[in-house]
Amino acid sequence: MHLEKTISQADGRLQILNCLLEDDSQKSTREIIAGMTQPQKRLPSKYFYDAHGSRLFERICELPEYYLTRTELAILEANAPAIMAFFAECGGDLVELGSGSNRKIKILLDAVPAPARRRLRYVPVDISESALCEASQELLSAYRDLYILGIIGDFTRHLEILPQDRKLITFLGSTIGNFASSERLAFLQGVARVMNPEDRFVLGLDMLKPPEVIEAAYNDRQGVTAEFNKNILRNLNRWLKADFAIADFEHHAFFVKEKQRVEMHLRATRQTGARLADLDLPVSCRPGETIHTEISQKFSREQAHREFRLAGLAATRWFTDPAGWFSLVMLQKAPERQDQ
Length: 340
Prior knowledge:
The chain contains ten helices and 15 strands. It is an alpha/beta fold and 340 residues long. It folds into two domains: 5-19 and 65-210 and 299-333, Vaccinia Virus protein VP39 (Rossmann fold, 3-Layer(aba) Sandwich); 39-55 and 211-297, no CATH class. A nine-stranded mixed sheet has the order 1-2-6-5-4-7-8-15-14, sandwiched between helices. Helix 2 (51-61) runs antiparallel to helix 9 (224-239) and helix 3 runs parallel beside helix 4 (103-110). It is globular, with a radius of gyration of 20 Å.
């Protein structure tokens, strides 16, 4: 694969591949320009994340209103042995898309007996080189028998770089809900394409629940989510030499019933503007105008099954909490239909 480039290797247990080349920065530039010149301005949610953004998100995960992480962790702790039974008799790769911190993956690794873990290779995929390397070194210290192939890349564009061997792919959290419907379908189809019949895919889904519970999760009393939302402008200021006045924007998050999703926006509190110097792009916002920064889709089982079928995937097991607020779904590649 011509995009693949080895940038780091250490003591035989760690290899890092970089898939982010110059054309990726050009694509990022195009999507920012396209988003900020639409009638409804928008920015891709991946630009929340620098080191500060990652720390803010970790704080969000601990908030009392943010049910998602603690519910998913309880599901993982209860069902990790069943999920990791994939490695009981045969080795393979444990792939984590959007790996981030190690809290969840440690639950899965701890569910594998040491002899079986020696046949397992961990393959984290993350857009942040520093986060991936730091997390990998922590795991190597904690698990002396673990081998890691780290991939620095955008999992929406670089799925083809995943190993071809037997693998269990995980996409934990509720990140799939941050994709628009067409993007979700393209992503799920991409996962299906890189799967072998024996491979499995474990996907996190935030399920439908009372709107007041959902909205509270994105409007915490401490204001951490608001700071996280504004961090996207701080990153543009630093990365693109922009000059957004952060104080001119307020956090705005709400549940859209007809679309069954949360939308997060930054709303201008006064006439304001900025210039993204590196893109030679002026931006103006009227009072009350918003920049759309994130969606978070909530799913019913019926909707999820429809999307899986369209993508060529089939659910084999559902793992959920007693209230049905969150689900981990184990999927396999659907058998190809034989036209009569």
